[in-house]
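User: Hi! I have a protein structure encoded as tokens and I'd like to know what sequence might fold into it. I'm fairly new to this, so please keep things simple.
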């Protein structure tokens, strides 16, 4: 089978970075009330700035597919010939601009320089970008493609705007005397960022630049054991299952902010670290590896709160990785969900820090129903 190399990586962020103090200028207040949890959440998540694909009036400046296409174009430095040689486009996101057509074909639509090619659109949340990466990796590994692009992207800012929750907050104020939406909704308003990342994969190395050989990519889901934790376009019932937006009336959807993104923080804290990093131990043992062989550890974290939790779990499992070998950019990029791992790899790849023979361990947890993706890259 062919070796598979990341020969180039690229990213696209919309507009200028937004500081913590500016967030509500873009997201607005809910029912003219300042969030009760904003300061606590921002203090814990360690995010200092993020990017939104909208202006202060709430008007979108970019769609998800546009941002993704711009990241793809950056891989080729807007060289039409490079796009013509592309065999496969795999695009992962949790926030497509529409339910149909698929996200991937919409991205392809913004790339008229390409030929008629295979396009796939893995759905999911944070792991969706890694699933796209794995599909591209396997296609080249099997010889079905010579050149492929994988992407991860998100555009959530518009559904975090205060006006999305306006009707629900008014209803709550009438019923309970306050207009504050639940923590499971307010929590994520201060966590997320927009943007897109892309990898160019090939069965041949780029002899003029540094490459990352993809050694393996492996995923696992615990949905057979655990109820949904993060969900959107649905509502969580008392039994832990979720009810689809399709089973609500239009008025119920508005009054309950059903289309918003929510998180069960209790489930998140209980399961996200133990499940994933116990699995990582088993993966490395099965592959005959130890963390002593890892030069860089790139964990996708939704919040800096989880850094110490992951570190403690790794140590408990006899897999301690010193902090100087960790590489993250959460504090100044924000949590871009399916795109975050692409942005970390891109930044490290062009940082000037890498040397041939070094290894990079990727770890992407997804709290939606507790799925995980791990991978190993070698600098060459």
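Assistant: Happy to help. Inverse folding works backwards from shape to sequence: for each of the 380 positions I chose a residue that suits the local structure. Here it is:
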């Amino acid at each position: 089978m062919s070796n598979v190399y990341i020969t180039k990586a690229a990213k696209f962020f919309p507009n200028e970075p937004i500081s913590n103090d500016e967030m509500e200028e873009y997201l607005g207040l809910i029912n003219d009330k300042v969030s009760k949890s904003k300061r606590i959440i921002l203090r814990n998540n360690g995010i200092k700035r993020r990017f939104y694909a909208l202006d202060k009036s709430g008007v979108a400046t970019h769609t998800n597919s546009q941002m993704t296409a711009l990241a793809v174009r950056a891989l080729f430095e807007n060289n039409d010939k490079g796009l013509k040689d592309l065999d496969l486009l795999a695009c992962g996101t949790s926030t497509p601009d529409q339910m149909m057509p698929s996200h991937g074909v919409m991205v392809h639509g913004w790339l008229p320089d390409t030929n008629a090619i295979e396009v796939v659109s893995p759905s999911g949340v944070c792991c969706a970008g890694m699933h796209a990466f794995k599909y591209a990796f396997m296609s080249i590994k099997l010889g079905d493609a010579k050149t492929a692009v994988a992407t991860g992207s998100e555009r959530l800012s518009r559904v975090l705007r205060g006006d999305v929750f306006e009707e629900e907050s008014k209803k709550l104020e009438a019923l309970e005397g306050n207009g504050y939406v639940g923590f499971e909704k307010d929590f994520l308003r201060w966590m997320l960022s927009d943007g897109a990342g892309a990898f160019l994969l090939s069965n041949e190395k780029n002899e003029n630049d540094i490459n990352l050989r993809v050694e393996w990519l492996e995923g696992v889901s615990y949905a057979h054991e655990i109820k949904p934790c993060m969900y959107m376009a649905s509502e969580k019932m008392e039994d832990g299952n979720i009810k689809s937006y399709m089973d609500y009336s239009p008025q119920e959807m508005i009054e309950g902010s059903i289309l918003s993104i929510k998180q069960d923080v209790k489930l998140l804290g209980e399961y996200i670290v133990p499940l994933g990093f116990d699995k990582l131990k088993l993966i490395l043992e099965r592959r005959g590896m130890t963390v002593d062989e890892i030069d860089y550890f790139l964990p996708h974290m939704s919040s800096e709160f989880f850094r110490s939790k992951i570190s403690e779990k790794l140590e408990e499992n006899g897999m301690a990785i010193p902090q100087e070998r960790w590489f993250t950019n959460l504090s100044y990029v924000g949590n871009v969900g399916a795109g975050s791992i692409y942005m970390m790899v891109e930044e490290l790849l062009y940082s000037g820090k890498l040397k041939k023979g070094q290894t990079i361990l990727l770890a992407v947890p997804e709290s939606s129903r507790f799925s995980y993706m791990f991978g190993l890259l070698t600098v060459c």
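A useful reference point when you look it over: The chain has a mean pLDDT of 95. Feel free to ask if any position seems puzzling.
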